[in-house]
Amino acid sequence: MEKYEVIIIGAGPAGLNAAKILGEAGKSVLILEKNAEIGPKICAGGLTRKSIQYLNLPESIIDYKYNEIFFNSPRVRTRINFGETFFYTIDRKNLGAWQLQKLGHNVTVRTSSHVGKIEKDYLIINDQEKIGFEFLIGADGSNSVVRRFLKIKTRLAGVAVQYKLPLGDFPDFEIFLNSKFFSSWYSWIFPHRDHISIGYGYPQKVFSPLIAQKKFEAWAKERNISLENVPREVFLINCDYRGWKFGNIFLAGDAAGLADGFTGEGIYQALVSGEDIAKTILDPRHKARKIHAALRDKYLHEAMLVVVIILWPVRNILFNFITWAVGKRIIGRTLIRILT
Ligand SMILES: Cc1cc2nc3c(=O)[nH]c(=O)nc-3n(C[C@H](O)[C@H](O)[C@H](O)COP(=O)(O)OP(=O)(O)OC[C@H]3O[C@@H](n4cnc5c(N)ncnc54)[C@H](O)[C@@H]3O)c2cc1C
Fold first, then answer.
1. What tens digit of pLDDT does each residue of 272-312 get?
2. Counting beta carbons within 10 angstroms of the beta carbon of residue 307, is it exposed (0 to 12), middle (13 to 18) or buried (19 or more)?
3. φ and ψ of 173, to 5 deg
4. Which fold has domain 2-339?
5. Which of 117, 161, 237 best tests ligand 1's pocket when mutated (most atoms within 8 Å of CB)?
6. Residue 334 confidence (pLDDT) above 90
7. What does residue 20 show for φ and ψ, rounded to 5 degrees?
8. I need a labelling partner for 14 at 20 to 30 A (CA). Which of 48, 74, 279, 301 fits?
9. CB of residue 38 inside a 6 A radius of ligand 1
10. Which of ligand 1's atoms lies nearest the C-alpha of 41?
11. In what order do the strands lie in the sheet with 174-177?
């Protein structure tokens, strides 16, 4: 049986980052990706300042840089401008290609390789090929086969829905808070170089997908946004964190449930968990400080979300107040710093 020191399932930001660090350290690494191409993923491609700093991305990968954001509530619209860039959009295909290019020779990448079955020290690709491992990293996203193998339940996942509209009427980076349409969550408009990402999210198992969609369509109609003939893209965001280290098996990024239950951000958490896991494999005494810091932020944001949920009778009043308050420079800066 063919065998590697580390097998990584999933070539998203988490898997590729882990592979880069392990490859640089001389480990024999196999990264398995079920799709034929590395990179494309249903995602709005929004990166906050910390991800850009972390990745040190070249300008060519960045679609747009934003130093201002429009917050919208039912009665208030506020423009926040900091005079410094704090939000970026990227195309996931370009991010994947860029990360792939950084991998060293020790890393073998196999696409069109679906992992369906896992055992303690081997796995099976495309129902036929058996490959052994010493360490396994589940970086296989919100519907993780590794998480299922570990018998870890996923109770707190969000559903995010995106439409990619042609460039045109929506040049600004906008967030919409409106309890009538989105309950405690929000909808977004993120302009990219070749399209505009418009979408919304809601908690799986709490909301009916049909009702959520009808509400979004009503909101879009109110704003003269035509969704006609635009494909609807839907995927889960796993926010149900239950640990990342399970003996010789690790969970990274969405597979670990590290995504933020309030903002939906998950790329940064995927990157840093990939790094900490790789470093733990290289040195079991490594302290996973980046995962712990990401968890602290996640829990803080999710506590804020709980407050928004509890205050449902006055939620729109709260949203109007927040939207007004973030227009005040200090409050706006503080909130953006906390959330990004
Ligand atoms: C609509 C939407 C909008 C979003 N917008 C943002 C945003 O603006 N900013 C942000 O930070 N986050 C956003 N997210 C979340 C973000 O996309 C994820 O948190 C992030 O991609 C997680 O990275 P990952 O590496 O953990 O997993 P993924 O990026 O999901 O990568 C997992 C990889 O594993 C592969 N895979 C899965 N199963 C198998 C298998 N059995 N065998 C082999 N390969 C497998 C998949 O094909 C995939 O390539 C959004 C999510 C959605 C759904």
1. 999 999 999 999 999 999 999 999 999 999 999 999 999 99
2. exposed
3. -85, 115
4. FAD/NAD(P)-binding domain (3.50.50)
5. 237
6. no
7. -60, -50
8. 301
9. no
10. 29
11. 77-81, 68-72, 174-177, 186-191, 196-203, 157-165, 232-238
